[in-house]
Amino acid sequence: MKRGTAWRAVVIALFLLFMIVPIIATALFSVATRWDRTIWPEGLTLAWWVKVTARSAFQDTLFNSMAVALATVAVSLLLVTPTAYWVHLRVPRARPWIELLAIIPFGLPGVVLALGLIRLYSNVPLPLINTPNILVAAYVVLTLPFMYRSVMNALEAIDVKTLSEAAQSLGAVGRRTLLLIILPNIVPGVVNGSLLVFSTVFAEFTLANLLIGTRFKTFPIYLVEFTRFDARQASALAVISFLFAWVVSLAVLWLTGRGGRPREAFGAR
Amino acid sequence: MSAPRRRSRRGGTVWLGLVPIFLFGVAFELLPVLMLARSSLITEHGLGLGNFGRALSPMMLAAFANSIELSLVTAALGVGLGTIVGYAIVTTRSTTVQHALTALADVTANFGGAPLAFAFIITLGSTGVVTLLLQAIGIDLYPGFRIYSVAGLSIAYVYFQLPLLILLIIPALLGLQREWREAATSLGATPTRYWLHVALPILAPSLLGSFLLLFANAFGAYATAWTLTGPDVNLVTVQIAALVRGEVQLDPALADALALLSIAIMAICVAGYQLLTGRARRRAS
């Protein structure tokens, strides 16, 4: 029994060490005056934080990332929520097709999606290539698995048919059923999906870099630029990214309990 | 009774509600892929496999070898270590500790890309924190090890592979019933035999499915590699990105061929994952 507990403690301790040390190191590095010769930081300072957040590019890129993320969430919500409801209730035969659409993105590396979009639309006279529009479209595709699974899981968890029938027998019709009865019941799923989409888009580098690059700088692009010429300021930006991911993940966990996240998808690798 | 009648009366009109998603899917998901497939087959001399021939040049073959090796190694490490950590988590008595560790896996599985790569530069770079610490106790990581190499990249990849696997495998581990172990033990099975003949065969589909998912996860990754190593490391995604930006040479048809080969590899992994975990789910229910 004793031996049984010992191995577990060792395994968990090593796991914690591996997962936490890089984050703590980055956080400490961002407030260290100098930390490349000694075991501990030579002194503490907030100078890097002040310096990096005072730049107008910091606010601009943060704003750009927020705007793209919000736009993606909005488009994804408008596209996916009614579709999921409709498939679930009215056209179950269409389900395999929609599932296919929601699965393809996760077998599609970001560089490949970017390449395909550029090759397809670079000679098309639409306001797409080199504008944030193409980025939002790409992000809706990238995060389709997140949004679709979140909303579908929520729909499957409630008995939509019985709820709809109950609403109808009480006199509610069509759109009112959807708005007043179904929607409130799937709100956690919808919010969950939106948060996942938002945080994925906020941290995404590949598509942003390849599709519009320097013309419309997002926060991750700003961060990568800094890693090339000022490590200390970059570390402050990395900490901001980490904090952001923590907050959103914990919010999702809190909203859905364990296992609420659709596992099939991954975002910003 | 009313359902079939409604279907025949409305016929295909219910499908109209799906027009937006299909239009969107075709425009931004299917057509780009079909476009790549088409243009990868078009060469200067008409239709042909010439682009794929160039995609198998020594340089590109090395890129595929590196990408596949990196994905195999980090997926194997993720599955091996993750199963052990996952088992430690589910057999922990304190539910608070269980929940806290699952939450940590959940949060860190989402890390990746630039900030993660940078955190590893700070931790294990040439003047990294852990590098200095190890130096102080007499272990010199450098120059034998470099974080900016494929080996260094593997460590960074394991950082997001490990928690992802833990989340994928915990449900399967919870499905292992305590009674099975007790039955095996009472029939005289040693722990090793229990694992070999009972637990692992039951877990096998989940483990293999998760392995494929992790493989795809690593194979398609770009941001982490780019931030950590820049164009130095020869991976398929790095090559495609370089071709997209025209950094090396303007050869879009080659990029298309590379992309199509990547899609084929990813598709096999994703389909395998779906098949295996679908079967595991059906068995569990």
Structure description:
The complex is a heterodimer of chains A (269) and B (285). By secondary structure, chain A is mostly helical. Chain A has two domains: 1-45, no CATH class; 55-256, Orthogonal Bundle (MetI-like fold). Chain A is 74% helix and 0% strand. Chain A contains twelve helices and no strands. Chain A has helices at 2-30, 47-54, 56-89, 95-103, 110-121, 132-142, 144-157, 160-169, 174-203, 206-211, 219-229, 231-256. The model of chain A has no long low-confidence stretch (mean pLDDT 85). Chain B has a two-stranded antiparallel sheet with strand order 1-2. Chain B has helices at residues 2-10, 19-41, 50-55, 58-90, 95-108, 113-124, 129-136, 150-175, 178-186, 191-219, 223-229, 236-245, 252-284; strands at residues 42-43, 46-47. Chain B folds into two domains: 16-48, no CATH class; 50-284, MetI-like (MetI-like fold, Orthogonal Bundle). Chain B is mainly α and 285 residues long. The chains are: A mainly alpha (269), B mainly alpha (285). Chains A and B meet through α1, α3, α4, α5 and α6 of A and α2, α4, α5, α6 and α7 of B.
Topology, element by element:
The complex is a heterodimer of chains A (269) and B (285).
Chain A (H helix, E strand, L loop, with lengths): L1 H29 L16 H8 L1 H34 L5 H9 L6 H12 L10 H11 L1 H14 L2 H10 L4 H30 L2 H6 L7 H11 L1 H26 L13
Helix pairs in contact in A: 1-12, 2-12, 3-6, 3-7, 3-9, 3-11, 4-7, 7-9, 8-9, 9-12, 11-12
Chain B lengths: L1 H9 L8 H23 E2 L2 E2 L2 H6 L2 H33 L4 H14 L4 H12 L4 H8 L13 H26 L2 H9 L4 H29 L3 H7 L6 H10 L6 H33 L1
Antiparallel strand pairs in B: 1-2
Helix pairs in contact in B: 2-13, 4-8, 4-10, 5-8, 6-8, 6-11, 8-10, 9-10, 10-13, 12-13
